[in-house]
Each structure stands twice: as structure tokens, then as C-alpha cells.
Design brief:
The protein is an alpha/beta fold. Helix 2 packs parallel to helix 3. The N and C termini lie far apart (61 Å). The mean pLDDT is 96. The structure holds zinc ion (ZN). Zinc ion (ZN) binds next to loops.
Amino acid sequence: MTDGELRLSEFRPRTSLRVPVHLVETPKYPVVDAHNHLGAAFGGEWADRSAAELVATLDASGVEAIIDLDGGQGENLSAEIDRWAAAGPDRVIVVAGLDPDAWASDPAFGETEAAQLRDSVARGARGLKVWKTLGLRARDPDGRLVAVDDPRLDPLWRAAADLGIPVVIHIADPVAFFDPLDATNERWEELRGHPDWHFWPTRPDDDPDAPGVPSFDALLAAFERLVGAHPRTTFIGAHVGCAAEDLALVSRLLDEHPNLNVDIAARLGELGRQPYTARTFFLRYADRILFGADMGPDPAIYAIHYRFLETFDESFDYGTDPVPEQGRWQIHGIGLPDDVLRKVYRDNAQRLFAMGPV
Ligand SMILES: [Zn+2]
């Protein structure tokens, strides 16, 4: 290396800022963590841990209930529900999944998934999780990507409405994951560490037969058409409606589609770097935003969420890694008022997942 140069991977700046610090280890009101993973997905940190261990972790962080999005289908789903039953009634709410790998050999995949969903609810599932494979990876029997608003899935969305369960849906990914991986990409380090998260090249929006994946904008447009086409179905757009970088867009979607709600899972980095816009967003849509942490229950992560939502602390880390994992910036608290906190922490999730008092 040339004198005076420093590798980005070795840069560990230490802040000189002296500002008030308010650590918040337990929330001001009980919390429902409406977006998390207790199964084998995402590293599977909780796949082999016990209900007693989970209860202790949740209790330490003031989490009254947790929504486990890793239910899957069939016997796996039943096993996941059984595994957490010892945690107590309504402590772990298990949500069913889809089987998009099977769509490639099933021309009636929409009907099949609808029937599976009815079976899942009979087994005790309380919602449906749809992952970003829809629109980006899942293929039909002709080998074509299944679009987010593909009408062949209409039976599934109608079944969710008939069963009265919400659909937690994650479409696309951070905007930077759809941009070239060059020196201007704000998530360069993250994408370099996870090359499979990079959706590139994207195809032109007017040519669905071109090679490459749909653009971020095309995926979000299809998401809006989906939500608009199924007003009886309750959708929870994961990760701040799948567009945390653009709260004006999410606000418009919420204004135009009363069946849409959002969770904040894994997006403190985005919300907290636009604290004024984020605070206005929370105040305006207090009845439509659900708390969620993602990536396994973790007291340190919960504490950062509580600090962001409850205090006006400035310039703090949104994660626990030495290098901020989603980009090299810090976040600022938005000091939400009590009535908004109560709704975001618990009331909205209780209503949408039909838990306890409504
Ligand atoms: Zn998740």
C-alpha cells in the first residue's frame, strides 16, 4: 500500500462527539416483535435452542410475543409450532411459508399454494410469509420468473383473505442491491461480503424477456399492483414496505391502499439516517407500522431499536458489528410519543395477528 493510504476494510473511525447517551434495555411498553426468525433460515441461530431459553431472552428485553416467520409448510410447520408451544399461549406466533421451488413443475402452483395455506392454518399458522424469491428467483414450468403480481397466484391471496390471516411480504431488497457494484454503491462492503445478495444485471423495465432480473422500481410497481388487486387481503410490507429508502413512496402506498401495513424489520439503518422524515412517517401512520427486529431475538439489537424509537440520542450505531453492516453511517433517535409507541410496539400487531386484546 502507498504511504498515506488506508484500506477501507481497516478503517475504524472512533467518534469524537460528546452527546447525551440514553441506553434503553427494556421498552417503555410491552413489545410484540412482529418480524423474526426462530427456524433454520438465516443462519438458524435459534433452530436448536429451547423454549425456556427463548422466554428468558424475550423477558429480558420486554418482548411479550414474537412472530416466527419460519413455519414453512406441512410437517415442518407442525414441528415448529410444537417446538415453541412450551413458551406459553400467544408467546410465539408461527407464520406459514410457500414452496416456490415446486412451482417450476406445477402449472397449478397458485391453487396448490392456496390449498397448502388452508392446511397450514388448520395446523395452527397465524399468517403467511412471502419472501423476495417471488419476482426474483421463483420460476414457472416454462422457466420464466413468476412476477410479483402474477394472476396465477390470485387463489393464494384470496385464500389468505378468506382465512383472515395477514400476508407478511418481502419484495425486492435495498435499492443499492440493484445498482452496479462500483465505488458509488453505498452498500459496497455488504455486497462484497454477500455477492448472492446483488441483483445484477437488471433488465429493462419494458422488456420482461431480456436477460437479468427486474429492476427495483419494476418490483415495487408490481407489488403495488398486487396490493391494489386484492383489497380484501391484509398485507404487511416487510422492511418498511420494501422501500425504506423512499418514505414518500411508502406513504403514497399506505394512503392509497388501506389493506397495506408495514414492519420496520432490519431497517433501523435506513429509518435512523432520515430521522425527521422517519418521525413524521411514524406519527402519520402510527396505526399501520409494526415493530420487528429480524435475524433472531437478541437483547443488544432490541436495545438499539428501543433507543431509536424512544430517545432523541444522536449519531449511534444501528447494529452491533464493528463496521456498520448496511453502510457506513450512524442513526439518530426519533423520540416517539407514548400513544405512537404503544401502537407500534404492540397494538397494531395484536390487531393484525388476532392476538389477545384487540
Ligand atoms: Zn426477516
